[in-house]
Amino acid sequence: MSTPVVLVAGLHASARTATVDRLLEEHSGSVAIHHDLRAVTLDRVRRVVRDRTGTLDVSEVRLAHGCVTCTVREDLLPQLVRLAHTATLLVVDLWDSVEPRSVAEAVDCDDARDVLRLTSVLTALDAEHMPVDITRGDRLSEAGKQAARGDQRYLSEVLARQLEYATGLVLHGDDEEDAELSRAVLAHLAPVTPIHPVTALPRLTGAALCTAELAERVDPGTAQLPCDAQDDEITTVVWRRVRPLHPTRLFEAVDELVTSSVRSRGRFWLATAHERLLAWDAVAGVVSVEDAGPWLAALPEAAWETVSPARRMAASLDWRPITGDRVQHLVFTGPDLDRERIHDLLDSCLLTREEERAGPDTWARYDDPFAPILDLKEIA
């Protein structure tokens, strides 16, 4: 029988350690494994294995190339398979800036599926730091949390992915005001993900997760985006339209859209990229715009069978007789957002009725400031 595996992600070791300690205490025979990546730029990783009684093993792992992928492939998976024969539960304590998706998909592989079954992906959060961390525009290297040589990611970017991919969030901290604010922020950023105190963790030894389904929760074409919401301190604004965006007008609006909100994401339709679903992903003033593949309406019907059921379902919900599944669906979250201003600004970026009537052949000739940068992560 396969051994359950739980991933515990999070920027702060104190919150992760409290969560892992609780899991080890509650599950007799469980074992935790952690790879310390502080020296990863020197191609060295420190592996620590422990159980409820203390440390079982500390080893230095030398890698051919210092990165998370190498660590998972060359050391984590073999160690999990080895430990699975004696452990009742395996807990993977991920380094601060490791995003759980790549590790989850590595664990959920054909070669290990008979031995390991991924049952939960938790992100442990420090209630004092989380509301500030999601607004921080500094790079991981500046915070000493990089996961590879040349790691150029931003701290807030990693936190957003840790939050949105997780199947459960664990809140650590004794201050009730901190916890209340964190819960309010999380209700906007990850509204359907359950939040647990460290003292009341969910059942973690059940059926295996499907990582393909986890990916569909966050991938642009199928993402479960937040709805319009507002409370005393935080606002989430949803903007949905079915006309294409003018590339120059949108580009000129990017700075205001990104700096006025803390987190924004979604999919959009640019007139000059009529056939392509574009993904918008921004946090703490840093925005990424990427090509996420064709709209379903741009594919021949025979090719739809190659697309996942979730993608076809998402497309069907947006479907219009002429435009198909092409849609503007962007979501912005931040303190006291001006919903009317965001709607007016984005509406002003849409093609006018006259421009729309000109059709895709004319749109394709528009100047497009996005064209040279669609393959780049950072555009503002």
Describe this structure in words.
With about 375 residues, the chain is of the alpha/beta class. The protein has 2 domains: about 5-220, Rossmann fold; about 230-375, CobW-like, C-terminal domain (Hypothetical Protein Yjia, Chain: A,domain 2), CATH 3.30.1220.10. About 30% of the residues lie in helices and about 25% in strands. It has 13 helices and 14 strands. The strands form 2 sheets. An 8-stranded mixed β-sheet has the order 4-3-2-5-1-6-7-8, with helices on both faces. The protein has a 6-stranded antiparallel β-sheet with strand order 9-10-14-11-12-13, with helices on both faces. Strand 3 (about 45-50) and strand 4 (about 55-60) form a beta hairpin. Helix 2 (about 70-85) packs across helix 3. It is globular, with a radius of gyration of 22 Å. It starts with a strand and ends in a 17-residue tail after the last helix. Residues about 375-380 have low confidence and may be disordered.
What's this model, at a glance?
With 380 residues, the chain is an alpha/beta fold. The chain has helices at 13-26, 68-83, 100-107, 130-133, 140-143, 155-165, 176-189, 211-218, 247-259, 309-318, 339-347, 353-358, 360-363, and strands spanning 3-9, 30-36, 44-51, 54-62, 89-93, 116-126, 168-172, 195-197, 229-230, 234-241, 263-268, 276-283, 286-294, 328-335. The chain folds into two domains: 3-218, Rossmann fold, CATH 3.40.50.300; 229-373, 2-Layer Sandwich (Hypothetical Protein Yjia, Chain: A,domain 2).
